[in-house]
Amino acid sequence: MPPPVKLAIIGGGPSAFYVASRLLSLLPLKDPMSPPLRVHMYDRLWAPHGLVRYGVAPDHPEVKNCTNKFDATATDPRFRFFGNVNIGSTPLHSIPRALHLPLTSILNNYSHLLFATGCTMPTLHPAIPPSVYCIPALSLVHWYTQHPSQPPPPALDKITHLTLIGQGNVSLDIARILLTSPSVLRQYDVPEHVLEVLSRSTVKHVSIVGRRGPLEAAFTTKELREMINLPEASMVPIEPTLLTPPSGVALTRQQRRTLELLQKGSKNRPGSTPKSWSLHFYRSPASLTLPSSASALDMANLTLAHTHLDPATHRAVPTGETSTLPTSLVVTSLGFHADPETTFFDPALRHLRSSAGRITSSDGSALKNMYASGWAANGAKGVLASTMIDAYAVAGTILSDIAPSSEAVTTAAPPPPETEMAPDELLNRRPDLDALPSEIVHGIKDGMVTQYDDWKVIDAEEVRRGGALGKERERMGWDEALSFIALSRARP
Ligand SMILES: Cc1cc2nc3c(=O)[nH]c(=O)nc-3n(C[C@H](O)[C@H](O)[C@H](O)COP(=O)(O)OP(=O)(O)OC[C@H]3O[C@@H](n4cnc5c(N)ncnc54)[C@H](O)[C@@H]3O)c2cc1C
Ligand SMILES: NC(=O)c1ccc[n+]([C@@H]2O[C@H](COP(=O)([O-])OP(=O)(O)OC[C@H]3O[C@@H](n4cnc5c(N)ncnc54)[C@H](OP(=O)(O)O)[C@@H]3O)[C@@H](O)[C@H]2O)c1
């Protein structure tokens, strides 16, 4: 039988769960050929599921069905989840009161390690740093999902015009939430305090700015169609010349559909709705001039550099022209990168250094028994389906190392020749399979570390509270969850 395997996973998002579920199902508990296996998952947030809980837009409830699979994974007796545990040297200011566990504690206690830490930092624009008039999209997403970092609510009752920079799906998520009536949103997983702010919103127009053209827009057609069909908002028609593809260019299906949708325009006639939105192509932010007084009605002036597409590189190149867009609030939605404090972060890639699922050292050699998956390994691109496919491949790679003779080893990347592996072994070869780092033992005793059973108690209570309000769920913050868990643990 292969030697025992004790795998620590840092991160409790979809990638982490998909790797865990794949490994546990391919190495059945009762199979005498399976190595003794433990999978311990750590997340700095007290609740599991990463961006599925703290990212996916509330009006897309079906996307969250993947959590049923994650729940099933968590019932495997070899699996444990520890929430509210920040691993490594990441500054803790963003997650108040998370327990800190140095990476060395993980290295000393585990034989294998997977980084599934995602890309948790928003990409900022150098020309328009964060200010009262410019915030990253992530702080709005964290606000409406009640993320433990607790960003302040946006002053939506003091603004009329909001500009999103970036034309990806996160931009469209935010635009949709701001342009949808709270009476529609209230059936979903939107906290009451968020609905309250949305119901006082005076936002009338959302501009969505992209540095390239409609054919290069990062949003997908499903999300564009939802914008076009918004019942209470209309799209400002787009200059037809911008929607005429250059002759001789073969369009992809997605590009064809995007052009068709944009040419058709929104379901509501322009000007017929209380709210509106517009797409601005070939515009890149150059500067933001703040108003001289901080009166609520004063707008900032966003200077936009006009651009065109370099036909060779497909990059946006400034034409030299500029224009000004008065706006109450700029929201930058330019994608995400991994936390630079994470071990093995590569500044050039802006995510962790890895190859075919294996963490690599700076000289490119694979580190023994260390892996990376999901956005941590590949950068902030792709949806849950692609995250799952990547996670299954990484599980295959891990499997090829821990049970090379297993029949399940079919999709794995071939193990690198031994000579390519970095010689130093950072992990523990023979850890006690059921022992936990002492900090975690104390954290569980003090009630500061959550486990999956605790989460299921909160999950059921959130759904119950939501049901009483006629909605999908009503979320709890950490303080409330902490007391509720303590009470439920105290019950006989
Ligand atoms: C706003 C937003 C909306 C999205 N909506 C959709 C959608 O509708 N449909 C869709 O298919 N895809 C959507 N996606 C994409 C999808 O969420 C990602 O493909 C997926 O979440 C990536 O999974 P992951 O596990 O790699 O990262 P994440 O989901 O980010 O999980 C990483 C986890 O690691 C934890 N972590 C990080 N560092 C540490 C540390 N040091 N110690 C402990 N824990 C740590 C984080 O707290 C987090 O929980 C969306 C993405 C965003 C940003
Ligand atoms: N409903 C869904 O399925 C859903 C919802 C949310 C997120 N997601 C997925 O999550 C991933 C991340 O989404 P995202 O919207 O954050 O990122 P994204 O898809 O990468 O879009 C980022 C946008 O920002 C622009 N941008 C980046 N840097 C810029 C700069 N310096 N100046 C001007 N513009 C800049 C990009 O333009 P360029 O193209 O010119 O670089 C692009 O328009 C995507 O794969 C997305 O599909 C999916």
UniProtKB/TrEMBL annotation:
GO molecular function: oxidoreductase activity
Gene3D superfamilies xref list: FAD/NAD(P)-binding domain, NAD(P)-binding Rossmann-like Domain
Broad class of enzyme this protein falls into: oxidoreductase
Catalytic reaction annotation: 2 reduced [adrenodoxin] + NADP(+) + H(+) = 2 oxidized [adrenodoxin] + NADPH
Cofactor(s) demanded: FAD
InterPro entries linked: FAD/NAD-bd_sf, Ferredox_Rdtase, Ferredox_Rdtase_adrenod
Annotated binding of FAD, by residue: 15, 51, 87, 375
Amino-acid positions noted as binding NADP(+) in the UniProt annotation, renumbered to this chain: 167-170, 211-212, 223, 382
SUPFAM superfamilies attached to this UniProt entry: Nucleotide-binding domain
EC number: 1.18.1.6
This protein's UniProt keywords: FAD, Flavoprotein, Mitochondrion, NADP, Oxidoreductase
Key word Secreted present: no
One GO cellular component term: mitochondrion
Cellular localization per UniProt: Mitochondrion
Claim: Cytoplasm is one of the keywords in the record: no
The family this protein is said to belong to: Belongs to the ferredoxin--NADP reductase type 1 family.
Protein name per Swiss-Prot or TrEMBL: NADPH:adrenodoxin oxidoreductase, mitochondrial
Source organism per UniProt: Suillus plorans
